[in-house]
Sequence to fold (306 residues):
Amino acid sequence: MEFCLKTAGLVAAPFTPMLANGKLNLAAVGLYAEYLHRKHVVGAFICGTTGEGMSLTLAERMQLAEKWVACAPVDLKIFVHVGHVSLADSCALAKHAADTGAGSIATMAPFFFKPDGVAGLADWCEQIAAAAPELPFYYYHIPSMTGFNIAVSDFLEIAAPRIPNLAGIKYTFEDLNDFERCLKFDNGRYDVLFGRDELLLSALRFGSYGAVGSTYNFAAPLYYDLIAAYRRGDLVEAEKLQAVAVAMIDALVNSGAAPTAAFKWLMSRAGVDCGPARRPLFPPTPEQIEKLNVALEGTGALKWIL
Fold:
């Protein structure tokens, strides 16, 4: 079985729809999947950082995986993040994803007790990948959240011969030199998805095929215009559109609200009500929403969103 097919296009990292009481709003997933499909997003990476996966119970994560797989259009690939600080729970999530019919699985590094360097991470990932050997497996590199940072290209050296279903990397970090080494590893064998929306143009310049991001939920058309400009050689336009994306992200991040809470608010404005973020995060206050509205108007990004 071929596990290293390249993902071409944008993969959204969906927010987890929730009700006002903090419980899952599974009924919203079908609308959400259709919305992403209309925006030409090629995949959904569920239960990751944007999806508040670490704030969900094991049962909730399984329910979400089942619902996304059931609702997704046939050409919307579902990546299920199965990372957990418990190896047994992570393996259980991986097996469940396979049984549910997910397209692939991914795990970030454990973030309380951490692996013993690259070799320890490879051992951790090997066991999770083996729990769902029929699914493509991705290592999700996000040191800003896990506090665990390695050269991912070194991980590929050790993990490639040990994990038969290793398909690639979700690379959410700013080390573009390491990212380039991952892209070129073993003659470009692996599917290396870039995860920093504000640096998408840089990733394209290094030869990236695909990307995973939070803002692709509501602003995919902006980024597809950026990609099109780059592909036709119009770097001035590509840089202009990347600057719009950066301004949009800055407005959301600097509103005073938790970024995930601000992103969920904007997703609701875009037409998919994802409800509030789960504690310890709080929804934006009326004052923060007023600041967000003014700042976003100033970026010019809303014409791609609303």
